[in-house]
Design goal:
single chain, about 375 residues, alpha/beta, Aspartate Aminotransferase, domain 2, Aspartate Aminotransferase, domain 1, 7-stranded mixed sheet, two-stranded antiparallel ribbon, 12 helices, 13 strands
């Protein structure tokens, strides 16, 4: 078996450290919003290059709370991509605001900033939620340009991109450091994940920080005194302790993911297969941290045939995402229809995520490519 993602291999290597960290938390007796959460907030905010981190219960809550802390109001319009996880758009609706979808770039699969600007020229927009999809950084200079020119708010969705980088005015910056705020997810499969749910908001804005910190504890700055109606969304101390252990290895794991992506590309190039796979550009920064390794096939029929074959061969895969958000039944009232965002719709039918995690072996990578080649060579 070659799983899409394997928590067990990583745990085997870190078991003693993790169990010691959990034991210390329980022995300490402070299991909610204690020293481990504060340490993680410092670790992550410093790593990303911002002043503040606010640990919350999950990445979805991070989006909802961050938008509210940024001052979103009922009826406000927020631009985002239809080719992403549901929480990106649902966070807008949960704040009584309206998602405005924009198609993605056909090469990066990230939101097309040229199309975003076309909307900004015509409509009053509160902000943008760009998603650094699969771990690849959205054009940070482009985001900063839109922010400064149109005075919009930007909430970076970094749920898949912790550690990814881009260039801004010649300087290397990490995703999450350009917008008014950014969010992270610590879901188990993420590049930095715990053994349950967890999330974080990062920001340089003191007001957003103070508001988000209050909102995560029922809208209370002082216990039992509530300034607004907030949420119960606290990052557990045990999860923070686990993440602090894993954080020490994050950059090593990122380098391994990039190395695995290069090996996939090398094997695919050797086989000369009819599929699109991520090309590794020679850059001085980590523009892609490969939370997912996604390949694209000619059509839906071949994609599904390959997936079925890999499943039979004991190789895990997944489809991100089978139904673009503008076609989800819960968003029908927005008025979008099939054909509105052709690139996103095509990607949902033709892409497939292959196994990628730091402990994946060269033999396993070669096996995945070999099994794909069996199907594609039959089709040629």
């Amino acid at each position: 078996m070659i799983p899409l993602f394997d928590l067990k291999r990583q745990y085997k290597e870190l078991k003693k450290e993790i169990l010691d960290a959990i034991d210390q938390v329980i022995q300490n007796g402070k299991v909610i919003l204690g020293a481990q959460v504060e340490k993680l907030e410092r670790n992550i905010s410093s790593f990303i290059g911002v002043k503040y981190g606010i640990g919350v219960a999950n990445g979805s809550d991070a989006l909802v709370i961050a938008l509210r802390a940024m001052g979103i109001n009922k009826g406000d319009k927020v631009i985002t991509t239809p080719y992403t996880f549901f929480a990106t758009a649902s966070s807008i609706v949960r704040n009584n605001a309206m998602p405005v979808f924009v198609d993605v770039d056909k090469e990066t699969y990230n939101i097309d900033l040229n199309q975003v600007e076309n909307i900004l020229k015509k409509e009053k927009i509160f902000g943008i939620i760009p998603v650094h999809l699969f771990g690849q950084t959205v054009d940070l200079e482009g985001l900063l340009y839109l922010k400064e020119k149109y005075g919009i708010k930007i909430l970076e969705d970094c749920a898949q991109s912790i550690g990814s980088e881009g260039k801004v005015n010649g300087s290397i910056r990490k995703s999450g450091s350009i917008g008014d705020a950014g969010i992270l997810s610590f879901f188990p499969t993420k590049n930095l994940g715990t053994y349950g749910d967890g999330g974080m908001i990062v920001t340089d804005d003191e007001q957003i920080y103070e508001t988000a910190k209050m909102l995560r504890v029922h809208g209370s700055k002082k216990k039992y005194f509530h300034e607004t109606v907030g949420y119960n969304s606290r990052l557990d101390e045990i999860h923070a302790a686990i993440l602090n252990v894993k954080f020490k290895y994050l950059e090593t794991w990122t380098d391994k993911r990039i190395s695995i992506a290069k090996k996939y590309a090398k094997f695919f190039e050797k086989e000369k297969l009819n599929l699109k796979y991520p090309k590794i550009e020679q850059k001085s920064f980590k523009y892609h941290v490969f939370h997912q390794y996604v390949v694209k096939f000619k059509d839906n029929k071949i994609r599904d045939k390959v997936r079925n074959h890999l499943n039979d061969a004991g190789i895990g895969t997944s489809i991100y995402y089978p139904v673009p958000l503008h076609l989800q039944s819960c968003f029908k009232k927005l008025g979008y229809k099939e054909g509105d965002f052709p690139i996103s719709e095509n990607l949902s039918k033709t892409t497939l995520a292959l196994p990628i995690f730091p402990e994946l072996t060269d033999e396993e990578i070669e096996k995945v490519v070999f099994e794909i080649s069996k199907v594609l060579k039959e089709e040629q």
